[in-house]
Amino acid sequence: MPRLFTAFREGRRELGYVEGQNIRLAVKSARGRPDLIQGLAADLVALKPDVIVTIGIAVRAVRRASPTIPIVVAATTDAVAQGFTSSLARPADNITGQSFLNTELSAKRLELLKDTFPRVRRIAMLVYAGSGPSRDVTETRTAAQRLGIAPPTSRCTAGGSRAGFQRRETRTGRRRRCSGVGVVQCAP
C-alpha cells in the first residue's frame, strides 16, 4: 500500500493538487486488522469529505458508512463478484474506480505451471480471508480439475509482513505436500 499511496500523492501533485494549499487529505489505515475497518470508515465519513479513495475490502465498509459520498476504488480484484457494483460499464450508486479482472488469467497461470512442471498434481491456493467471493478462486479450481490438479485452499488472515506471508505460503505448500502454491487474492 505505501507504493500505491506514494503514486497517488505524486499524481495529485502533478495535477496541481498540493496538500495544505488546495487539497486536504485524511489517511486512515487498518494496518492489516480488518476488525478496525468499519470504525475507520465511519471516521472518514464524519469528516464529510468530497470523495473517499479506498482499496479492497474497505470499499464495503465505506459504502455502508455512506451511501452518498463518492467512493473511488483505487484497486480491487473483482468489483462485480464482491457486490460493489452490478456492472463495470455503468457503476451503481456512489462507486467508481478500477477492478483488476484477471479471472481469465487464472486458468492460464495453471496451464503454465503444468507445462513447466508436468508432474504437478496438487497445489495450495492462498486466499485472503477477508476478500469475499472471487471468480479467481472458482476459475482456478475449474482449471485445476481440467488439468488433473487438486487445489486445496488455505484462507489467510490479515496482518503481518510480506515475509510472514511468504513463510505461510511455503509452510502451506509443504504441509499439504503440494507441487506448487498459488496466491489468488492476497491484498486486503
CATH class of the largest domain: Alpha Beta
Strand order of the main beta sheet, please? 1-2-3
Percent strand equals 5-15%
Please, what is the average pLDDT? 77
Following the backbone from N to C, one meets helices and strands in this order, namely HHEHEEHEHEHE
Structural Rg: 19 Å
**Main sheet, how many strands, which sense, barrel?**
3 strands, parallel
- What would you call the structural class? alpha/beta
Distance between the termini: 10 Å
Q: Within the CATH hierarchy, at the fold level, what is the topology of the largest domain?
A: Rossmann fold
CATH 2nd-level architecture of the largest domain: 3-Layer(aba) Sandwich
Shape: elongated
How would you characterize this protein structure?
The chain is an alpha/beta fold and 188 residues long. The chain folds into two domains: 2-97, Response regulator (Rossmann fold); 103-185, Rossmann fold, CATH 3.40.50.2300. Helix content is 38%, strand content 15%. It has six helices and six strands. It has helices at 2-14, 37-46, 58-65, 103-116, 135-146, 162-175, and strands at 52-55, 71-75, 95-97, 123-128, 153-156, 180-185. The strands form two sheets. The protein has a three-stranded parallel β-sheet, with helices on one face. A three-stranded parallel β-sheet has the order 5-4-6, with helices on both faces. Helix 5 (135-146) links the parallel strand 4 (123-128) and strand 5 (153-156). Helix 2 (37-46) packs across helix 3 (58-65).
